[in-house]
Amino acid sequence: MAPTVVSVVYPKGAKFDMDYYLNHHMPLVREKWESYGLKSWKVAQYTNPESPYSVIAWLEFESAEHWAKAAASLEGKDTFADIPHFTDGKADVLVGDVKKSDSW
Fold this sequence. Notes:
four-stranded antiparallel β-sheet; 3 helices; 4 strands
């Protein structure tokens, strides 16, 4: 099974509390979804003024099936219920299998 990356991108112009996101929401994501195959997460804030997005989170899961189970779980409902605490925007969620990666 290929690892799956879930990219969650938040629209520019929406309210976004980065401090809450990094210090509460993302630890909650790990706590709730690690048992469902979440392997890592990263968050970046876009600096390009032309971007339609302001923030992206990359969530790496063991597989697409693991992501689907996490999202549909009771823990997933708890995680999604936390969203209004840091943004009033609607995120786009993109899911894809990793084809190849490299790091150095």
